Amino acid sequence: MRPATADDLRLLQASLADPSLVFLDGFHALKHAVRFGAELLLVVVTSSDRLGALAGALAADVLEPLEARACVADRRDVDAHTTVRPHWTGVWGVARRPSYDATQALAATDHGPLVLLEQPKHRGNLGACIRVAAAAGAGGVVVLGGADPWEPAVVRGAAGLHFAIPVVTLQGTDAIDRPIVAFDPDGDELRADLIPNDAVLAFGSERDGLSDELLRSASARLRIPMQPGVSSLNLAVAVGVVLYAWRMVGDGGRR
Predict the structure, then answer these.
(1) Full-model pTM
(2) pLDDT (average), residues 90-100
């Protein structure tokens, strides 16, 4: 495995801010990027045997494509060129950012419901929502508002599963021509048969919930049943509950 060059380290650094690139933080992010067809540009490891050990324990199928792009760098050089907290696997990478089209994602009604996140605040939560949406077979994730779903912290939280489903941003709901199912504490109790396969499942921010504007645009309002005295769920947990209700009982379980 070749030693890292100054150009390799500059590319790793550039991927933290360049909108055409994706910084892949840790082995799992690289694993999923490879499995779902990412254009991988660079892999950086802290020792020549690191990839083999991780792949042998976790995902032998991705070793060959990772080794083809791999170089070895001193951990201090990596730290000097990145601003993220160190990843325990000692593996990082850079991929080309895929070009997902919001209009196409909204029009693709045969791939299951979309998850819409309105003004999510916590980047780790946003990443976890993408991860569970990919696992449950959702049609994609739409982020409404100013959060960038491709930030390194989000990609880390999603374990690189941005490459498995469309992840797009919108500034408003005017382009949505699908039934919006809003999740709100005052809604009807969740039943999977109330979630159409072409629905947009709308979840509000961790602090404020859904806006009045989005609630007015919803064709249905549902709530997740909880024990008395429990007021809320973590955002990613709520998304997971709803998607697996749909998958196990609704249209998702019959696909």
Answers:
(1) 0.92
(2) 93
Distance (Å, whole) CA 66 – CA 177: 40
Cα separation of 193 and 251, whole Å? 8
Confidence of residue 254 (pLDDT cuts 50, 70, 90): very low
Distance CA 149, CA 123 (A): 8
Q: Is 174 helix (H, G, I), strand (E, B) or coil?
A: coil
- Using an 8 Å Cβ cutoff, are 152 and 23 in contact? yes
Residue 121: partners with Cβ closer than 8 Å, 6 or more residues away = 147, 205, 206, 207
Q: How far is CA 98 from CA 22, 125, 189, 192, 220, in A?
A: 9, 22, 37, 32, 33
Look up residue 36 and give its amino acid: F
DSSP line for 93-135: EEEEPP---HHHHHH-GGG-PEEEEES---HHHHHHHHHHHHH
Gap between the Cα atoms of 90 and 193, Å rounded: 45
Token representation of residue 219: 């064709």
How is residue 28 written in tokens?
């799992």
Going by C-beta distance under 8 Å and a sequence separation of 6 or more, which residues neighbour residue 61? Answer: 35
Q: Cα(181)–Cα(149) distance, rounded to whole angstroms? A: 22
Q: Angle at Cα 118 formed by Cα 116 and Cα 119, nearest 5°? A: 140
Structure tokens at 155: 């990609």
Tens of pLDDT, residue by residue over 227-236, are 988 878 899 9
